[in-house]
Design goal:
Layout: E1 5-9, H1 13-25, E2 29-33, H2 36-44, E3 52-56, H3 62-70, E4 75-79, E5 94-95, H4 102-117
Parallel strand pairs: 1-2, 1-3, 3-4, 4-5
């Protein structure tokens, strides 16, 4: 699982830190950005592969659209996700409800991992 890269864009650093800490314990490679602008500076103009993005549902779809164009195999998870239409970017997308449960997020990521291994 170490080669499976997850990036989180969340405007709340405490949530990002909690998710990162929990997923790192599972052996996943996790990085965070607090805004779309910071993410674009760090990742959009280089060849770092991201397998799964966890996004704050309040962010615009532009980052997801550009990442999907750059990497067709990327999966998206929206937090907290009650908006079904946003989750139709990729069939592996996660639908996490409010309030956020790390165990639910972990299960969605395990599901994404199992589909990518097939």
């Amino acid at each position: 699982m170490e080669n499976f890269r997850i990036h989180i864009i969340c405007q709340k650093p405490e949530i990002c830190s909690l998710i990162k800490k929990s997923l790192t314990r599972l052996g996943l490679n996790v990085s965070c950005s607090e805004s779309e602008g910071i993410f674009e500076q760090q990742y959009m103009n280089n060849d770092i592969k991201i397998d799964c993005m966890i996004l704050d549902k309040k962010l615009s779809d532009s980052v997801a659209d550009r990442m999907n164009a750059k990497n067709k195999d990327i999966s998206f998870i929206y937090l907290p996700s009650l908006d079904i239409e946003k989750n139709e970017i990729n069939t592996d997308d996660g639908k996490i409800s409010e309030p956020l449960k790390i165990s639910e997020l972990s299960n969605v990521i395990q599901n994404i991992l199992s589909h990518k291994r097939v």
